[in-house]
Amino acid sequence: MSSRRGFLGVAAAGLAGVMLAPGVRLIEIAQAKTSEPITSKVRWGMLVDTNKCEPGCTDCVTACNTENGLSGGTRPTDVQWIRKIEIKEVKTGRTHSLPMMCQHCAEPPCVDVCPTGASFKRADGIVLVDRHSCIGCRYCVMACPYKARSFVHEAVRDQKPDVPRGQGCVEGCTMCVHRVDQGQGPACVEACSKAGHNAILFGDLNDPNSDIAKAVARYATRQVREDLNLDTGVRYIGI
């Protein structure tokens, strides 16, 4: 029995390196290269200041598409991980422009309904999809109250080596996990900062000394659909 287990272990290790497409390997995206262990001591999050988010600005969307190899098209079948939306207060008529993406909930509905475990949450709060376990049932698409999941209808070409994707699978914002695990921030945050908007802040919500934790403690922040008690990792100022 022990020899059989050893053989299976070696076989699994070998399969992990099988090439599916140029630059894409059969590996778990959650196992991105990192020198630090992934623990619940850290909870990655983003804080969006809608007072600084200009209507019509799509710098964050463009950066996401470029970083993750998305088409950024307008067809119904095109995949989009982040989109700009406009919301309006019924009582005052005040409008807000803000980016909407996977909210990386502490209690993600997409994980609850997934029959294969393909939708999962890392210990550090990032919600991901294992494309090798996803059967394309799209239960998570229906369960997400933020419409943050997309189904890949067509074959994926010119993939980015750090962002494996596949036809027939569901996708969503990964908070640029491949960058986070290398000590960088999400591409949308970097683009917003470079453009001088500084509307999105990224960091560890569990670290009281981090800029994002200090901002959350100092300013009145909101979660989209707070009534659902999902404890989102993405918070907003000004809504």
Structural commentary:
With 239 residues, the protein is α+β, with helices and mostly antiparallel strands. It has a single domain, classed as 2-Layer Sandwich (Alpha-Beta Plaits). The protein has 7 helices and 12 strands. Strands 10-3-12-11 form a 4-stranded mixed sheet. A hairpin with a 6-residue loop joins β4 and β5 (95-101). The protein is globular, with a radius of gyration of 19 Å. The termini are far apart.
Helix content: 10-25%
Count the strands? Answer: 12
What does the oligomeric state look like here? single chain
Strand content: 15-25%
Question: Could you give the topology of this structure?
Answer:
Layout: H1 2-15, E1 19-21, E2 24-25, E3 44-49, H2 59-68, E4 82-88, E5 95-101, H3 109-113, E6 119-121, E7 127-129, H4 139-143, E8 150-151, E9 170-171, H5 177-180, H6 187-194, E10 200-204, H7 211-218, E11 221-222, E12 234-237
Parallel strand pairs: 3-12
Antiparallel strand pairs: 1-2, 3-10, 4-5, 6-7, 8-9, 11-12
